[in-house]
What does this fold into?
Amino acid sequence: MRNSKWAVIAILPLLFFLAIFFYWPLFRIIQITIQAGYNGWKQTFSSRLFPRFFIFTIIQSILTVIGSLLVGLPAGYLLARTKPYARQFLRAAITVPFLFPPLVILIGFVVLFEPSGLLGQLIPSWHFTPFSFWGIILAHTLYNISIVARISEGAFSSEPEDYHILADTLGASWWMKFRSITLPHIKPALESAVLLVFLYAFNSFAIVLILGEVRLQTIEVMIYNQSRIRFNIQGAAILAVFQLLVNMVIIFLYTTRRTYQTGDDSGQRVSRSESSLLPTIILGIIILLTWSPVLMVFRYSILGLLAAPDQFTSQLFSGQFDRYLGTSSTRVLLNTLFFGLTVSSIAVILSTLSVLSSYLTRSQLVEKLSIPLTLLPMGTSAITISFAILQTHGQFTFFSDIVFIYIIAAQLIAALPFASRALFSSWQRVPKDLILVSQTLGENSLSTFRKVVLPYLKSGLFIAFLFSFAISIGEFGATYYLVRNQWTTLSLAINKLFASRTALLPNLYASILVLFSLLVFWIIERFGSLELRL
Amino acid sequence: MKYRRLILILIITMMLFLQPSSMMRNENSIKQNADSALTIYTYESLLADPGYAYDRAFEQYAGLPNGSVNVVLLDDAGSILTKAVSEKADPVADVLIGIDNALVSQARQQDILTPYQPKEADKLVSGLVDGLASDYLLTPYDYGAIALWYLKQAFNSSIDTSSLKLNDLLQNEVRNQLIVENPNLSSPGLGFLLSTIAMFGDNAGVDSMIQGGWRDFWRQLSDGTKLSPSWGDAISLLYTKEAKRSMMVSYSTSPAYGACLYNDTSTAAVLPTINGTQYGWQQIEGLGVVKNAPHEALAKEFIDWFISEELQSQIHLNQWMYPARAGITAPDCYDAAIDPSTITPLNDRIPQNLLANNLTSWLDDWEVAWTEGTSGSFGLPFDTVGIFATLILIPVLLRRKKEI
It folds into this structure.
């Protein structure tokens, strides 16, 4: 009895947070769509642009999935089944791009691929423009190769060796083996990857906002344009609810599919072969491709600094960009760190409390609550959340003064599902008999949690913290929607300086973000592994 | 031992927590002792090149301490409006500078400004107040015609400025070099859209001057023309040689900039003509007091000062427009600009109330025309992609059903 009371108390902060910053705003948006009535919905769906942009959103998502599979699957296969030189390094290098903030990828991508960019200068007949349908697909694909590669690698490498030996003995062809052993084995992982990439592309904001100009818009960009620029609140709310429904269907499919656990035990099937050159080269090319935007960012930072080494301090500390950025160029850095650390600390605290609650109840209650608690926030896009917050909290006179709290809240809603998943997977690894032993020896519940459970959660805590940090520093959509000048972050500053994309400062900012992401990745890999799944 | 690292991280976090909150305190204190301070929202290019520090000048004029006028620079007039609307419940800004005669109806609808007639209103060029806001919701501070500004060498012989027709912009060599600003976000962009509506006419009550429709015109322009989010972005693109974009929507006065500052006459401006007459949408830019502004009295003083001779004499050579105050003569280098007396304004063809009633639907139609273009596809055979995608999707969906 006592325990369940504490369990409720432990989960209260999370519920309280979600109620204020998520459920109330979301409820308001749904209310607007109900007030709009049949005619409002009809008007939105029968506008000339809706069908077009909806089809675009779907098609670009499908093509992104195809593109990511075409490159990501071979990469996953090569990592799992062959023995390239410097395998661990290649493996890490393929995974990291997942953590790169979208604005970093964007700025590097454009300066590399636009006709006046590096490729255009090297190849006179280069006519590809990133500001196009295929530009968006390519940028999305570069981003998502790492997800497919990492997830499929796990599946490929956990495939039982004996089946293949048996099949070989029975004279099965390569195709037979692939069809009847490999494919069924990797299928669940493949489906997870497909749904994850689809979800990502379907809700894409920054890449489509900038590369699509006005011609191409995802529903996410439409919600932004309608609510923030055209003040069409009703239309934007209808689009947001529609998008939420589609997302929930995808996430539902995803969670019902994710029944097959693939081991992350790399190297089961590789021991027999020697290190070979060909896979190393192919993987190297794939890595070069996914890293190319980041390399461009480094290139312009280094070129800029070589041209005038003192620019590093003058650009970051002189204040010559203050009016343009809306705040000082140093403050932009501090803001980003402030949001990152605050969001990740709160995310860790709230998720630890929900693990505690789950521990205290000894029931599946908390996990049963996971759909309203984590899946719904996950299915709600960044723009929808910030639009909803502005529609509710925006009416308060103190809104502008404490807007940083709302930015933190919006980023937190994005980070929480990942943080709590990292912690819950650590929680599942806690040997439950140890808890019983401890309690038999007379320790009470809380001290057992502190002494027995918490040490097991340590790596989970670190991963939750760092992952939330990475999500926060790279977040663009919600921050862009809500931000007031003094709270400008690195991603937003890059966007502001996008027109002068070969100049030093935006590239310097992007390089700083990349270095943060690399650091986060490096620490995560030391403490456990990056959980790419939801 | 085990928790030492965790504790360390938490301590560092707390330290960083303190950092921005102390910065916030600073800001709040500025806000609080800032009964004398003034917050201005404007666009980044206001009086910016080569630059006249109007904030410092006003502080001096009003006897305010240095730094008490806080200027917040936004991308363009549209962003000023958007930001002010989002803060309507609790205004941060006192003055908005840069809302023009095309956006004034939106500012009026959103109810973010309060009218104020400045002391020297009678010194303004006649017609400007009525062209912008006869109730002084906004006070005009400059004006100029929206024109196409281009690098001469890129169009050596291909443009005859004395007889350029609007439809000539659709020639490949022109539209592939043209940059237009998004009319949703940029006031010259919107001014140019309104020029096309004024000339082609519209069912809403605008008589047509030339054959064709403005929607079709934009549909065709969309193939090849570059859309830029702001005037500032457009100008960086114009001067990026590799981008090969040599013409942009700007002002009839833009060539004066190079001529006055660098004795550079390599650029020119051109307006569309009909039977030899040059037509242009005249943009009238204004500034106004924010409704429920924190410092309303000072905001009004600022507006009085903004149309004074002190500031208005800076317009020609820093803002590159014509000052709204009468009696200020243009420098000689302004000969490079299109002579304003030869321009027939299109503004009367779209009266304010017609504009207010139709702007939203015109912007919707513009977005449709721009998005669909002439090919109606995403830049590739649309049907091919659709069929391709469906072919892939159907077996996946069917399979899934079988399994479940």
